[in-house]
Design a protein that fits this description.
Elements (H helix, E strand, L loop, with lengths): L7 E8 L3 H18 L4 E5 L4 H7 L5 H9 L2 E6 L10 H6 L2 H7 L4 E7 L12 H4 L3 E7 L11 E4 L5 E4 L6 H17 L3 E6 L5 H17 L4 E6 H10 L6 E4 L1 H11 L12 E3 L10 E3 L18 H13 L4 H16 L17 H21 L1 H7 L1 H4 L5
Parallel strand pairs: 1-2, 1-3, 3-12, 5-10, 8-9, 8-10
Antiparallel strand pairs: 4-5, 4-11, 6-7, 11-12
Helix pairs in contact: 1-11, 1-13, 7-8, 9-10, 11-12, 12-13
This protein binds 3-isopropylmalic acid and magnesium ion (MG).
The site of 3-isopropylmalic acid has 7 residues, from helix 5.
Amino acid sequence: MSTSATAAKIVIIGGEGIGPEVTAQSRRILAWFAAHRAMPIVLRDAEYGVGPYLATGEVMPADTWEAIDEADAIVFGATGGPETTAVPAEARRRASLLSLRRKFDLYANLRPIVAHPALAEAAPLKARVLDGVDFVIVRELTRGIYFGEPRGIERLADGQRRGFNTETYTTGEIRRIARVGLELARSRRGRLCSVDKANVLEASLLWREEVQALRDAEFPDVALSHLYVDNCAMQIVRAPAQFDVIVTSNIFGDILSDCAAMAAGSLGMLPSASFGAPDAAGRSKALYEPVHGSAPDIAGKAIANPLGSILSVAMLFRQTLKRPEDALLLERAVARALTGGARTADLAEPGSKPVSTREMGDAVLAALEALAPEMASGRAGEVAADKRQAAMTHS
Ligand code: IPM
Ligand code: MG
């Protein structure tokens, strides 16, 4: 069978800061699966950021938009350059990660948080609170204060300046993300926690009412609780194992996911996947990116942790390619690389020698080579064990 007609198109956009360093490792992983697992994929690289801005005047040049338009999935690295680099805010607004999320209305952002036993010592939280941590933050990604109007910085009559943004959610915008959370909870342990600030904000009050109404009407089997965001932040560090699925607004999801990263050992560990509604042809574009940002302080040093990006590729295998066995194989390879002692600087214990970004990629590739034959022989059992994770698809 020729794969070219059916092959999934994947565009890799390294972007800025440590982005290109981590996606280079994801690229090697994707190439390994294409070569060794007959994975039908076509890879294309596209430019993003200050580099193309200086060359073309656009953060995302036409060629990048074209690659994205054609793609089934985008593997993105990071956005945000050093403060001193002059990309005007206007150019960023015209084309950026945020406009990419918004253009394809990738409103459902899934951020799984898993505490790897091998990282218990590396994590800032005590090992005893990390036992059994396995939850997903469902973050609304294309509405709320990130995009709400009016917004701006204005000059007041008295000479001061005033900055303002708008937190806004309609019932429809709340219900579609609540549905993602409720369906995901139903496919997992049946518990959804909705997070808001309903004691202060009207937008949150509406959020709470709508999530509850949808649950009551269509998901009576899901146990729904509500937490204020300040309390939730505390609960995530106090007892993170209590959570199954959290659903929340754009900005609260942004903040809580960095906080939750401490249960996973490091911000460098967290993957994410973002989806929109399927188009008329039933196709849904998806964006896979690590939760960490561009980390300009360590960019170019070859020390960034590529596992957040690599684990995002595992989400791509499961969600876009519908290949749960390959997703599981990759996740096990990451776990084996960690158990084998590979640690980038963010995970290394004092006195131990960290591996480079590429060496972490090497460790995952070596683990893939070792695990692939084992998986082939015991596949049925493995896939059954993966049923819960495979159910993370929300559509
Ligand atoms: C994230 C990041 C982005 C966000 C930044 C880089 C715009 O922090 O994906 O969590 O705030 O959404
Ligand atoms: Mg963030």
